[in-house]
Amino acid sequence: MEKAARPFRDGNPTAQRWGWIGALVCTIAWVAIMLAMGHTMLEALTNPLTVMEAIVTVWLWVVSMKVRSAAAE
Predict the structure, then answer these.
(1) How many CB atoms lie within 10 A of CB 2?
(2) Residue 73: partners with Cβ closer than 8 Å, 6 or more residues away
(3) How many Å separate Cα 47 from the centre of its chain?
(4) Do residues 47 and 16 lie in contact, with contact meaning Cβ atoms separated by under 8 Å?
(5) CA distance 62 to 44
(6) Are 16 and 8 in contact (CB under 8 A)?
(7) Per-domain residue ranges of the chain
(8) Which of 29, 57, 32 is nearest to 65 (CA)?
(9) Of 7, 16, 27, 48, which has fewest CB within 10 angstroms of its CB?
(10) Membrane-crossing residues (predicted)?
(11) Model pTM?
């Protein structure tokens, strides 16, 4: 039986594009949330109260990478 094509490994630009778009959206969303809450980026990186926000950001990155990985298969 022949293996199915793997779009990401085969250089499918659509799969790659959606993966990077997802990662970029997560980053922009995190920065927007930090700024909307009145944090400077230095505060956001050093203030322990932003730990939950960081956890949500990491979760969004993981989801984005899973979507990217799924698109690759």
Answers:
(1) 4
(2) 6, 7, 8
(3) 22
(4) no
(5) 20
(6) yes
(7) 13-72
(8) 57
(9) 48
(10) 20-38
(11) 0.43
